[in-house]
Write a structure and sequence with these properties.
The protein has 19 helices and no strands. The chain is mainly α and 479 residues long. The chain has one domain: Growth Hormone, Chain: A, CATH 1.20.1250. It comes from Hebeloma cylindrosporum.
Length: 479
């Protein structure tokens, strides 16, 4: 009798799972398809260009040291002494790492518009101040404050975007705003070269004008953030009540967390105890490490090949443009096939090939081609890891914690990149290349581990051998 009841219970569980899956797949059928499409496009246009521009400016402001160094900052501040340049680059990431989770908690408390405005204006002021620093020590001081205000920014963007869409719509959106940042990052070197020609105006050298004008532009963007940045679906005012209901219904049917849950100490400890979250964090570290290495050192590497300052800045652009195209193509394929790990692995291999080519070739043209592959692979993995992680969690509190931890790990990747590419290893930076290669192999191991665990858990749940995944009936992990 007990065996019969157990069998009957398993059959009911499977029926519930199938009904949940049907609901997740068919929720859009309850709404006019034209209405759904029109609303999603409106949200895309309201959200992605502005957030993409803000993140582009954030990336430019945190990585423009390499360009300013090439434009003369190294001589005036004596960044060629010891590891001064690496320390000035790295120190930013210390507060950036420590303040990730507190930033996401504050985000829900004071709202997206208030929090993002504080972040943008704050780091704009820090960036502006870097244009007036008289010594290397003051440069480090400004970089610390840059890290303080940027800490809450990127996780907030990812948190907000992933709350608006179904799981298999997320990566193209994450890639879209990240691509905007890649393109702007590519042209920032030429923009900085043009700004550097203001050298001598008002007694300020060209590298100082780079920081001053980019900082002033960031502060202006902070005011636009206050006026136009979107909030969470349950709070946003730019959608109608009908549109809000449709968005929340789709999210609820897809993963069951349309309504925010309250953060408690017990929940925080529970989320921090999830080992998969830490594996995802390691994967993000491995992805950002080569991305930061390119951001901080590509212009310097090109100049070491014998190119002039102008040609080095021009050649910096094209690997970014190629990376933008590659990231979008892989994001579209990943969303369409509903697979994450496979395409992460492909881009990981592309990055790995690029590192071997750049590190071991003695032909400058071939080494330059290797930079294309490194940038494309790394840039595509960044939004892919974020999508992979967000697809496999439920609840706002876990999303806040996991996003903070994962992006903090990206900051550790930044520290790693800025410290293993040492001044004494100039011009080929081979120890840095080896360390970056090791990160890519670690990424592959993590992918194998998560794929094995998710596949096994999905199978056990489908066969009724375990309870709901992520405490959500009908939820399956994305592999």
């Amino acid at each position: 009798m007990a065996a019969t009841d157990s069998k009957h219970s398993s059959e009911l569980k499977v029926d519930d799972i199938e009904k949940k899956e049907e609901k997740a797949e068919d929720i859009d059928a309850h709404y006019d398809p034209a209405f759904v499409k029109r609303t999603l496009r409106m949200i895309d246009w309201r959200m992605l260009p502005l957030l993409g521009l803000l993140y582009a400016v954030a990336l430019i402001d945190r990585t423009n040291l390499g360009i300013a160094r090439t434009a003369g900052m190294e001589i005036q501040l004596r960044l060629d002494i010891g590891e001064r340049y690496s320390i000035a680059s790295m120190i930013y990431f210390v507060p950036y790492i420590l303040l990730q989770i507190p930033g996401n908690i504050v985000l829900r408390w004071i709202g997206a518009r208030n929090w993002l405005t504080i972040c943008v204006v704050g780091w704009g002021i820090a960036q502006l101040g870097m244009g007036f620093v008289p010594t290397w020590g003051w440069l480090v001081f400004c970089r610390v404050w840059l890290g303080v205000f940027e800490a809450g920014f990127f996780p907030a963007l990812v948190f907000i975007i992933t709350c608006w869409y179904k799981r298999h719509e997320v990566q193209q959106r994450l890639a879209a705003f990240y691509i905007i940042s890649i393109v702007f990052g590519g042209i920032s070197s030429l923009l900085a070269f043009g700004i550097a020609h203001l050298s001598g105006k008002a007694g300020i050298l060209g590298w100082g004008w780079i920081f001053i004008l980019e900082g002033a532009f960031t502060i202006l963007l902070g005011l636009l953030t206050w006026l136009f940045v979107p909030d969470f679906p349950d709070k946003a005012t730019f959608v109608t009540e009908e549109q809000r209901k449709m968005i929340l219904d789709r999210v609820e049917a897809d993963r069951g967390d349309s309504i925010p849950d309250k953060m408690t100490g017990a929940k925080l400890l529970q989320h921090l105890g999830d080992p998969i979250m830490w594996v995802m964090a390691l994967m993000f570290l491995c992805s950002t490490m080569p991305a930061y290495a390119i951001g901080f050192f590509i212009t310097i590497i090109l100049k070491s090949m014998g190119y002039t300052t102008l040609m080095s800045l021009v050649l910096t652009c094209f690997p970014y443009f190629f990376a933008a195209i590659s990231a979008f193509v892989f994001a579209a394929i990943s969303d369409r096939t509903r697979q994450r790990a496979l395409w992460l692995g492909v881009q990981n291999v592309i990055c790995l090939i690029g590192l071997f080519v750049t590190g071991y070739s003695h032909n400058n043209g071939v080494r330059y081609f290797g930079l294309f592959l490194v940038n494309a692979g790394a840039s595509g993995c960044v939004p892919e890891v974020l999508a992979y992680s967000s697809n496999n969690i439920t609840s706002h509190t876990k999303r806040a914690v996991s996003t903070g931890i994962i992006i903090a790990a990206g900051g550790i990747g930044g520290i790693f990149a800025t410290t293993v590419y040492r001044q004494k290893d100039f011009p080929r930076y081979m120890p840095g290349i080896w360390a970056t290669i090791a990160c890519q192999f670690a990424m592959m191991l993590c992918l194998c581990l998560t794929t094995f665990i998710f596949t096994r858990r999905n199978k056990a749940y489908r066969e009724g051998k375990r309870g709901p995944l992520e405490n959500m009936p009908g939820f399956y992990y994305t592999t």
